[in-house]
Amino acid sequence: MEEDARRDVVDGPVVSGRPRAGAPSRPEVRAFLEHLEKERQVSPHTWKAYARDLAAFTRFLDRHHDGDWDFTRVDRLGLRGFLGELTRQGLGKRSIARALSSIRSLYRYLQVHHGLVRSPVRAARAPRLGRTLPGYLDLPRTETVFATAEARAAADDPAAVRDLAILELFYSSGLRLSELVGVDLHDLDLLSDQVKVRGKGRKERLVPVGSRASRALRRYLEAREVWAGRVGADRAAVFLGRRGRRLSPRMVQRIVHRALDGVGGEALKVHSLRHSFATHMLDAGADLRAVQELLGHASLNTTQIYTHTSVERLKKVYQQAHPRA
User: Fold this and answer.
1) For site-directed labelling of 201, which of 5, 59, 182, 262 has its Cα 20 to 30 A away?
2) 224 in the same domain as 297
């Protein structure tokens, strides 16, 4: 799966350092991407983002300098010109900030491993990002989603049983899409009701699995044998398609979107189940640092965004209870 994700990069090199057509032609960039993959072990999606951003950056410099440039001669004006071009192309602030972060990481690598002295990125400022609140399900809509999924699974169709298990595990354990797709049978311990997942930066963590999710998974693992016994099936993967292959992220997205459509989920995405998990935990009084650990966040600031609903709930209680509210 990871190899496929890297192979899909239009503007990125393949592994082993050999560039593809349209890939960054600079050996320093290829070495940096190999460093990300082999030493820092970033996720495939992060690797793709770095590869695309740096390919766009080097193409811009090639066009404006007729290929006659190197990283020691790139200055602030060149960097600002690239960021300005991204703005003219209609990229959002978040995408531009990500591109600048990719370039900054490249220059840090060049300073450490290639002796580069001066970095034009030091004085560059990322565009100011407005903090967007994550989409999530309130409790009534959450119950509707699971009631519908349970009704579909009642007919014992293996796909419907699998889809219920996917929804339950997402909401029960707050997994990311990549984490759920990557779960193997040996990661799942239904005796102890826990699952081992590999998050960002390949960091592993153990996450509890709730009783309803555990029941749904046990039922699915029995139904899964219909597909796992097929020729060429991926017997290691937990979630399989009808042909016995590991479900792709896109297929899981379709399953979740179909479930969310029934509750007016136009603004909801796969990540909304993870957001709902965190929001409902905090609303019920869970400790913020415990939720941080469950979600696999490196920084507590990332987890704090979920406290918005708790504040709204407290305001509502205040309005109802305080005599002079």
Assistant:
1) 59
2) yes
